[in-house]
Design brief:
Helix content: 25-40%
Largest sheet: 5 strands, mixed, barrel
Structural class: alpha/beta
Radius of gyration: 24 Å
Strand content: 25-35%
Shape: globular
Number of strands: 21
Distance between the termini: 70 Å
Bound molecules: flavin-adenine dinucleotide
Length: 471
């Protein structure tokens, strides 16, 4: 029987990062995957969605090219070429991760993992069918011996009870991200991150998009100003957004929803209907119960070292229900690996959830970092529009703003909507994580003209001494 320091179930970002760090620290790791290497993120989530958003962005830029004196009279969205490019990017990323695992001598097993005991895992070998995306099991099995088992089993789309499973117009993100033909019309149930990113993709590529959201605003986890701004900008682009609407039925492509204020009923007929009401941890209840692992419907319980309630069994990534973000899973994977490999007299490394950036790759992009305080005494809130930023003006990307929450000279939360803001958020994340004084960063020279300069402008504005604008 092969023996390992750790057997990791699931080769998503959490699992493969954990495997690599264990190997770097001298442990022999195995990873078992019943789908493609790379998990949801590489194959069905982050990578294909961002590849398609890039096409949407190019379409949007071509649409606006006349503003820059470049007249593109006719252009055509070739959706099949977009899909081919998406699939190529996914395949390259998957191959890159496989190569990375091989480079670190991590043994990769393709098949379904089952825990037999806290120190043995059984692999039911399979081969993935590239047409059906289903696993064809070969009938072969193997049992692996291990000191540690790491559950990195990820999450799946939540599908509500009213959905007719056999309605061909209804899809989850898992299916929509693989399509090769653009639907003429798309209704999205759920105005959260995934819903708004798909609305961005398809509205910019020419589909008629409707978003139906139960709550009074889209992106309800963000500041209301952000929700209002993205709502306004998307509606300007022709997306129909129905907030405060409860879906009551969805059959044969016809969605019925009730306005919760007026009780008025609306009907929307679309070629495709995406259900994007959230994701839930992949839990094998029978297995978790058999070994007495504590869990809730949200995810497997772990402490800050990533240990479950059963010694030797660890959990990381979406399966823990702590967040549905790849970078959180990656960090959990690293923390878990370092705790498995540490000398027992060394202090464990603890996972810190206080600064996990969240990005929405809409057009324009959105980010949120830190925790907006409920208690606002001694908190200064500043909001600076991109309209005061020179680079944004030069490039005509003046929509949006940055908003900072500052207490005792330190930024405690930051949110923004604006062109490519995902690329400027890390400075604020570092400030929050390190507890840096506003003044100390405002004094650092920021290159001119850059979008990033808005951070210096906002920090100085918070101190009442912005030199580059007034409001
Ligand atoms: C459309 C979409 C877009 C997204 N975009 C972003 C983004 O831009 N940024 C971001 O941070 N996050 C994004 N996410 C979320 C991100 O994909 C997840 O947070 C991330 O994939 C979680 O990583 P993970 O390693 O925990 O699990 P996963 O990536 O879900 O991987 C878990 C793996 O475990 C395997 N597995 C489960 N059970 C078994 C078993 N018994 N045997 C063998 N294998 C098993 C599964 O097949 C799966 O491949 C997006 C998600 C979606 C759906």
């Amino acid at each position: 029987m092969k023996t390992y320091k750790a057997v990791i179930i699931g080769a998503g970002p959490a699992g493969h990062s954990c495997a690599v760090r264990i190997a770097q620290l001298g442990g022999k790791a195995a990873i078992i995957e019943r789908d493609y290497i790379g998990g949801i993120c590489t194959n069905w989530g982050c990578t294909p969605s961002k590849a398609m958003i890039e096409s949407a962005k190019v379409a949007c830029e071509v649409e606006n090219s006349g503003h820059y004196g470049v007249n593109v009279k006719v252009y055509q969205v070739d959706f099949q070429a977009i899909a081919t490019r998406r699939d190529k990017v996914v395949k390259q990323t998957r191959e890159y991760i496989t190569d990375l695992l091989n480079h670190h001598n991590v043994d990769i097993y393709q098949g379904e993992a089952n825990i037999n005991a806290p120190d043995t895992v059984q692999v039911r070998y399979g081969k993935l069918n590239n047409e059906t995306y289903q696993m064809d099991y070969t009938g072969e099995e193997e049992t692996l011996q291990t000191e540690n088992i790491i559950l990195a089993t990820g999450s799946k789309s939540l599908i509500p009870g009213f959905i007719e499973q056999d309605d061909p117009t209804i899809v989850s993100s898992h299916r929509l991200i693989t399509i090769d033909d653009r639907p003429e019309s798309l209704t999205i149930v759920g105005g959260g991150v995934i819903g708004m990113e798909f609305a961005t993709i398809f509205s910019n590529l020419g589909s008629q998009v409707t978003v139906v959201e139960l709550l009074p605003r889209v992106l309800s986890m963000m500041d209301p100003d952000i929700s209002d701004e993205i709502n306004r900008l998307m509606e300007e682009k022709g997306v129909r957004i129905l907030t405060n609407h409860k879906v009551t039925a969805l059959t044969h492509g016809i969605l019925k929803a009730v306005n919760q204020d007026t009780q008025e009923e609306v009907e929307v007929k679309s070629a495709m209907n995406l259900i994007a009401i959230g994701r839930t941890a992949v839990l094998q209840d029978e297995l978790l119960n058999r070994f007495g692992l504590d869990y809730t419907r949200k995810g497997i319980d772990v402490d800050d070292t990533m240990q479950t309630s059963v010694p030797g069994i660890w959990a990381i990534g979406d399966a823990t229900g702590k967040s549905i973000l790849a970078h959180c899973g990656i960090q959990q994977g690293i923390v878990c690996a370092e705790n498995i490999m540490r000398d027992k007299h060394e202090k464990p490394r603890l996972m810190d959830y206080s600064v996990i950036p969240a990005v929405v790759y809409s057009l324009p992009e959105i980010f949120s970092i830190g925790i907006v305080p409920e208690e606002m005494s001694n908190v200064r809130v500043v909001k600076v529009p991109f309209a005061v930023n020179l680079r944004a003006n030069i490039e005509e990307h003046t929509d949006g703003f940055i908003k900072l929450w500052i207490r005792d000279q330190k930024v405690i939360a930051a949110q923004a909507i604006g062109y490519m803001v995902s690329e400027i958020q890390q400075e604020l994340a570092n400030m929050i994580a390190l507890g840096t004084n506003v003044d100390d960063v405002a004094k650092i020279v920021h290159a001119h003209p850059t979008y990033n300069e808005i951070i210096r402008s906002a920090l100085e504005y918070a101190e009442g001494k912005a030199v580059d604008f007034y409001i």
